[in-house]
Amino acid sequence: MSWLANVSFVLSASLHGGAFVINTPLDRYYVKNISISDDDDIYQMVAHSYINRNKRKNESCLNEHINTGFVTRGADWYEIVGGMQDYSYFNYGTIEIGMEISCCKYPESNLLAGYWDYNRDAMIEYLLQAQRGVKGLILNENFEPIPWTQVMIDNRKPVVEVTSLGEFWRILLPGTYTLKVLYRGFQIHSREITIQNSLSPLNLTIIISSSTYLPYMNMTTAASTTVRSNSMNSPSSIFMNLKILSSLIVLFIHFILIKDNQI
């Protein structure tokens, strides 16, 4: 949890044994019997990207609960409170799913190489999905990060926190969206973005005048924003790509930790 608080994860997963199923949020019925999050389309996309490349996708376990496509929302399977998926999502906007990859809850260590072979291509495909959507920088006119800033897509919640360096990332499916920038919860910028069906994200640098957001500290309003495209080869963009890469290796670290614990 401390790691998550200090590193902006774009996409994450945890590996488990005991079933063949991909488990997505929400893990709890927060409102009546509704288990669908605002980003359910994203969860379904990344889950099926994994399933479609898995070598054992047509297998199942005895008495296993699964829905069509071997993907289930957590609460529809069994409801839990305090799960990591919901925690990551609601607190940090991180897309995380649970991968149940073995009918055996605790497989023997000599079987782990086989599990790696079954899931390797699917893991790589899953990691690639972190490059879908939009990423960028949000800065003031002096090219400084703006504190207490968040990004909201349409009216989806949760919002995504902008890092202390002004960076943000958001996985999105192809389509047209309204990107909103919030300062202390107040909207200070809005623009329409169009996401292509590509593993190359839309890359933006959004410059917002300090005269736009500083008055919101006193709950007044102002407006003066400009938006410009960002070079993919700029130092800030290169840093963002490295930050994304560091986030992507979380999945492989999960696998190594589980393997070490079982040997």
Residue windows where pLDDT falls under 50 for at least 5 positions = 220-253, 255-259
SSE ordering: HEEHEHHEHEEEEEEEHEHH
Proportion in β-strands:
25-35%
Tell me, rounded to a whole number, the average pLDDT.
79
**Strand order in the largest sheet:** 1-4-2-3
- Which superfamily, in CATH terms, is the homologous superfamily of the largest domain? Zn peptidases
Using the 3D structure, state the CATH architecture of the largest domain. Answer: 3-Layer(aba) Sandwich
Straight-line distance between termini: 25 Å
Give the proportion of residues in helices: 25-40%
* CATH third-level topology of the largest domain: Aminopeptidase
Domains counted in the coordinates: how many? 2
CATH class of the largest domain: Alpha Beta
**What is the helix tally?**
8
Major beta sheet, specifics?
Answer: 4 strands, mixed
Number of strands: 12
Shape: elongated
* Cα-based radius of gyration, to the nearest Å: 20 Å
What class, by secondary structure content? alpha/beta
Write structural notes for this entry.
By secondary structure, the protein is an alpha/beta fold. It folds into 2 domains: 2-131 and 243-262, Aminopeptidase (3-Layer(aba) Sandwich), CATH 3.40.630; 134-230, Carboxypeptidase-like, regulatory domain (Immunoglobulin-like, Sandwich). It has helices at residues 2-6, 40-51, 74-77, 84-92, 112-128, 210-213, 235-248, 250-262, and strands at residues 11-16, 19-24, 71-73, 95-102, 134-139, 149-153, 160-161, 167-170, 175-183, 186-195, 202-208, 225-229. The strands form 3 sheets. The protein has a 4-stranded mixed beta sheet, sandwiched between helices. A 4-stranded mixed beta sheet has the order 8-5-11-12. The chain has a 4-stranded antiparallel beta sheet with strand order 7-6-9-10, with no helix packed on it. Helix 2 packs across helix 5 (112-128). The chain is elongated and about 60 Å long. It starts with a helix and ends with a helix. The model is unreliable at 220-253 and 255-259 (pLDDT under 50).
